[in-house]
Structures are given as structure tokens and as C-alpha cells.
Amino acid sequence: MHGFANPKRFLALASWLTPLLLVSGLVLTAVALVWGLTSVPPDRLMGETVRILFIHVPAAWLGMGGWSAIAISSLVFLVWRHPLAAIGARAAAVPGMVFTAICLATGSIWGRPTWGTWWEWDGRLTSMLVLLFLYAGYIALSQAVAREGTSSRIPAIFGLVGAINIPIINRSVVWWNSLHQPPSITVGKSAIDPAFLVPLLIAVLGFSLIFGAVVLARMRALIAEVQVEARLRRQALAA
Predict the structure, then answer these.
(1) pTM, rounded to two decimals
(2) How far apart, in whole angstroms, are the C-alpha atoms of residue 55 and residue 32?
(3) What's the distance, Cα to Cα, between the start and end of the chain in Å?
(4) Sorted alphabetically, which Pfam families does this protein's record hold (predicted)?
(5) Domain limits of the chain?
(6) N or C: which terminal CB in the chain sees fewer CB atoms within 10 Å?
(7) 138/84 Cα distance (integer angstroms)
(8) Are the CB atoms for 239 and 75 separated by under 8 Å?
């Protein structure tokens, strides 16, 4: 793990891995969306609105996955003081927030014809909205820490505490009476017809690769920003 603590070594890896992930993700996502939007038959109950799941499900997955990445990176930073862990957490925050917002937006679009309303204070919807607010708080906090030069432990602790919401989102449809459908994919089995499941899994993989590429690109940008600030500081001290 500490082998990539050296920014030069990490940047050398990220320089070729970022475009590889991005191109692969775009190709898989395009295949999945074309497949899901043109070839998959309408659902027996939801009709044509079922096609939104090829965006909604990957967005929900990556909204939760983004905060999981923040929590893991925060733990690594707090325990092992890994120098790139805090940067990795910051890099995952913005794309994680974007996918969370996409999840809420597509869920509302799906809910209007299905439930007859754009929004319900359902356990799954409410906990996902809380996740969006957590992202906003983390981004503001990490930017303030970077601007003021204070300890990165503060956003790291916030990232760990916020992770409590992830299992709540995951189990909300089980713990409480919910308008949201129960889990369709569990360990070892799936309630989704293969005609929908295969393109859905491809979409999840494609969006995940794009997410990884964006995180790496943001880490490279943040590292460059830190290096520029350090260089300017040295020049100011020398002057």
C-alpha cells in the first residue's frame, strides 16, 4: 500500500490507467444503454419506465460506493497516515455526489408514473437524500481544510461517521415498510429476469469504470495543486 505513497509512482500508474478506465467504461456504458433502451422488452408491470433502471441502479450503487471509498480512504489516512489517502477521499467526493443526485433524480422520474408522486419520505429515498447532504458537507469541510491548511483528520473523521448511513440505505427496504421495491439482487440469487440483468450488470461495470477514471483524474489534479502550492510557498520563503 505504501509503495504508491510516492506521488511520482502513483502518477506514473494513473497516467495510463485513467484513459484505459475511461475508454473501457464509455464503451461498456454505451453498449449497456443501447441494449437496455432499444432491445430489452417492456416490463410486465412497469412498462417502458423500467428502462430507467439502467441509469438509476448504477447511480445508486456508485453513490453508496463513493462514500464507501471516502470511509476506507479516511480509515487508511487515520491509521496508517498514507499521504494519498486524504487526496483519494477528496477525489471520490464530487463524483459520488453527482451519482447520488442522478440516483435521486431518476428515482423521482420513475416514481411519478409508478407511485403517482415525485417524492415520498420513504426510508430508502430519505436516507439517500441524507447521503447527498453528507457529500455536500464533506466537500465543504475538505475544501475549508485545504484552504486554511488545518488538519485533514477532521474530514477523515467525518467520512468515517457518515459511513453509518450506508448500511441504513442498503437495509432500509428490509427494516421499514417501504414503497421502494425490496432488494432484487442478493448473495447467490437474483429476482431480475436475465433479459434485464445482463445489460444492467454491464451498465454497472461501465459506470464504475468511468467513476474510477474520474477519481484518478481528480487525484492527479489535486496532487498537481498541492505541488504548485508547495512550490509557490518555497519561492515566497526564498524571496
Answers:
(1) 0.90
(2) 10
(3) 38
(4) Cytochrom_C_asm (PF01578)
(5) 20-39+51-177+194-237
(6) C
(7) 17
(8) no
